[in-house]
Amino acid sequence: MVIIQNQEVSLFTTADEIPEKFRLPSPINQREYLIGGELRHWEGEVEKVFSPIHIHSGSGLTPVVIGEFPLFTEEESLACLQAAVDAYDRGRGLWATMSVSQRIERVQDFAYRMKAKRDEVVKILMWEICKSYADSQKEFDRTLDYISDTIDALKNLDRVSSRFEITGGVIGQIRRAPLGVVLCMGPSNYPLNETFTTLIPALIMGNTVVIKSPRPGTLLLYPLLEAFRDAFPPGVVNTVYGSGRTVTPPLMMSGQVDALAFIGSSRAANSLEKQHPQPHRLRLILGLEAKNPGVILPSADLELSVRECLLGTLSYNGQRCTALKILFVHRQIADKFLELFAAAVNALKIGLPWDEGVQITPLGEPGKTQYFSDLVEDARKFGAEVVNTGGGEVDKTFFHPAVVYPVNERMRIYHEEQFGPVIPIVPYDDLSTPIDYIVNSNYGQQVSIFGEDGSAIADLIDPLVNQVCRVNINSQCQRGPDSFPFTGRKDSAVGTLSVSDALRSFSIRTLVAAKENPANTSLITEILRERKSNFLSTDFIL
Ligand code: G3H
């Protein structure tokens, strides 16, 4: 039970009340995994997947079991890696040496097959990580858009590389080539989109891939396994399941992973990197933690600031790496801001993912509600209060968003990345408070500044662009549009992931060069005319 508008209500439901369209006809008991182009049957241990959604039944309120997936041991994990290593064949494999246009065709074919699975994947997203119907659809559609934008970006890149350069008597053709085997590990909060924003560029550049899916966030990839198998040559995509602690160290320790694409904590990323016997051979593309601050200046338009801060702090319950995770509000306007913000938080619709217009849903990761309650309790000990009615109430996996004020540096919530619906608000008198916070922070992803005084904002932009990688003005922090560079400083990221930057991240420049003389010119002309090479080619992709 939680209190909403002064009433105690239960946010869960009975099985009969679930709209027909959103029911799972039967549990998704995954017994296959993709290895070397084959969907192999799994006979070993499995992990049960519990949805964060609870159902009222005769025996009380119980979590729904939505399926199971394989729990690999080291042996199967290494077998999947070997399949990727064999398919890459030290750069001599079919996929790595294929022409760019042929790889594009395969990725287009995959996108076509993926589209057919939209309803299934969206429904599992809703049950597995409790993303609202609207946001689950958005995640799927945005991923398909990302694929077609990636194809366009690669065509552009290839067009530029389809010509020769002649400098200082040397003739050369410079292109981008794959790195090798990529281990792709996406996060639980965007298990489809963020996995694919590394997977697709890695694939299209000619790498072979091992996907280790997140927990939660595994089952929703199951309907796509056939599409992977049918669209790509054997061994180009392989899937690994189970506990990260069991299945990933052997992969890294083998020294056969050439690039690690990981979205998660810097602690886990460090430990994975250290397990590689030759870390200098490992390319890292990492999206890590962040604690993006919002700074509300005295000149801010309060209604607009509240609107954007609400989106920034609580979209998908605040479970976004780009979420605003701490708000600094000038003391002159703090009371008014708090009043408007607390009212706006309490007006958000709380419910289940299929409820029309729902904004706050149950939390996907086990143990999260207790963690948030502990953060609130700790803040109380040091003088803060929850300023919105019902804030911090818990009903199983629901956590009623808590606006915590006044927050100071003695509280855990001031420092820790909460990744959920607790919103710390710090009053400030002098801008040195938020600036020092940002300078001394371990994170450096983004910041949002709210205000209407151009000089004050300009004074903040110049120092802040050197602290973070995106300064948002009167707008929440966010990753999109995907053509913009998405990266961070310090413990927040390694590498950059816009559509076009990702193509660079998963490839290396390599070239063919020759001294310009009649013999070489005629040799190159022969190779081109008779289309003897996929690399040395002036084909222009339209
Ligand atoms: O979890 C981090 C995501 O990349 C955030 O993406 O800003 O589009 O929600 P978003």
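^ glyceraldehyde-3-phosphate complex. The mean pLDDT is 96. The longest strand covers residues 46-57.
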